[in-house]
């Protein structure tokens, strides 16, 4: 594989890991700005298809989208480097928090509040851009609005999965099914054999680790099993993972509720995926070895799932019937993003007229002045700290 492409994937994902505040929905906005608009590694429709795929897989959707883009850009190693780059800044920061700030709870300083306001603008920009491309006509716009309404009145991970399935059925039955040509993508030749191996490894570990854990008394094996199982089975990603993690690490007595909640507070103050909360938990349980093992365990299923699904997905997405399904799913994804713009993004960020003004200012920098998202994040962080 081209070494230049691998280094490029690592560098871009690392910068996104340093600047992507605001949770998984905001991350998708950052990814779209970087990979679709700026670098044009893939087009809007291909990006939306990747988002749709990762929405229906268990695990952290935004991290999986980044892994998928790394796989398409630079092959199997590219997917690994995309994951490492995106998660490394926050994982290191949270491991250091575990060492320095155990038992203390982090509030919401002004600079963090400024970053949340920037996230509102970034998500709004993503919704606007994706709506123009993926819900341009009355049927798809109606489907997007319906998805947003249902998500707001019935918020749950299972609702989102059922909604995407229903939207796919509507697309299959009634929406246009345009023919598409396969767009050559550097590094996109991922083998089906490799995909089957990835899915087999996932199944063997998911089924075998619990049994092996009970026959071999090893705290590190128990740690790996707990975090691997959470990464394999949690749907919805992000904050949905917290109850499962709490039951895995607090109930066995590995840490107290106070330590757990302190880490949750720290996780809100760093960029990147919330799943790197595992680095904090692992560090509290077993130091740096625990941090490394827990982080690897919780993210490994995401890589195996995406690598296992992507070679088949790349071929399926160009079939006419599948295109109709994806037209419906993509419109529903726009609705999900629209609902998420309100909750949790706006509900967490907008508490006063000043917050709304700062979010509008950030939106203007993005949409009118065409400033890069990382610069808007920095400006909002400084303004939040000062004001």
TrEMBL record:
Keywords: Cell membrane, Membrane, Transmembrane, Transmembrane helix. GO terms for cellular component: plasma membrane. It comes from the Bacteria. The chain crosses the membrane at residues 80-99, 111-131, 143-170, 190-209, 221-242, 262-285, 292-313, 325-345, 357-386. GO terms for molecular function: chromate transmembrane transporter activity. It is a multi-pass membrane protein. It holds the Pfam family Chromate_transp. Signal peptide: none annotated. It is found in: Cell membrane. Belongs to the chromate ion transporter (CHR) (TC 2.A.51) family. PANTHER family: CHROMATE ION TRANSPORTER (EUROFUNG) (PTHR33567). This is ChrA protein. It comes from Tumebacillus flagellatus.
């Amino acid at each position: 594989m081209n070494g230049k492409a691998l280094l490029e994937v690592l560098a871009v994902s690392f910068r996104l890991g340093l600047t992507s505040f605001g949770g998984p929905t905001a991350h998708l906005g950052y990814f779209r700005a970087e990979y679709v608009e700026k670098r044009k590694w893939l087009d809007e429709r291909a990006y939306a298809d990747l988002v749709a795929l990762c929405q229906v897989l268990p695990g952290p959707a935004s991290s999986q989208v980044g892994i998928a883009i790394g796989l398409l850009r630079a092959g199997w190693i590219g997917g690994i480097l995309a994951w490492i780059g995106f998660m490394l800044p926050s994982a290191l920061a949270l491991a250091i928090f575990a060492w320095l700030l155990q038992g203390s709870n982090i509030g919401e300083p002004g600079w963090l509040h400024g970053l949340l306001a920037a996230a509102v603008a970034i998500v709004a920009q993503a919704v606007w851009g994706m709506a123009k491309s993926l819900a341009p006509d009355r049927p798809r716009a109606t489907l997007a609005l319906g998805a947003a309404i249902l998500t707001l009145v019935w918020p749950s991970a299972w609702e989102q999965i059922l909604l995407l399935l229903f939207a796919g059925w509507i697309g299959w039955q009634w929406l246009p099914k345009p023919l598409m040509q396969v767009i050559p993508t550097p590094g996109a030749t991922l083998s089906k054999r490799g995909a089957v191996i990835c899915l087999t490894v996932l199944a063997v570990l998911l089924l075998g680790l619990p049994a092996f854990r009970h026959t071999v008394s090893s705290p590190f094996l128990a740690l790996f099993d707990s975090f691997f199982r959470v990464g394999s089975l949690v749907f919805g990603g992000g904050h949905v993972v917290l109850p499962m993690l709490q039951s895995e690490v607090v109930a066995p007595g590995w840490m107290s509720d106070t330590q757990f909640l302190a880490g949750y507070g720290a996780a809100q103050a760093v960029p990147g995926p919330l799943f790197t909360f595992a680095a904090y938990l692992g560090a509290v349980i077993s130091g740096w070895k625990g941090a490394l093992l827990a982080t690897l365990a919780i993210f490994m299923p995401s890589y195996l799932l995406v690598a296992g699904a992507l070679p088949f997905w790349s071929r399926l997405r160009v079939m006419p019937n599948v295109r109709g399904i994806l037209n419906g799913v993509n419109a529903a994804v726009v609705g999900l993003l629209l609902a998420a713009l309100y909750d949790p993004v706006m509900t967490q960020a907008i508490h006063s007229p000043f917050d709304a003004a700062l979010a509008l200012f950030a939106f203007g920098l993005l949409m009118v002045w065409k400033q890069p998202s990382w610069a808007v994040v920095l400006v909002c962080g400084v303004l939040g700290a000062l004001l």
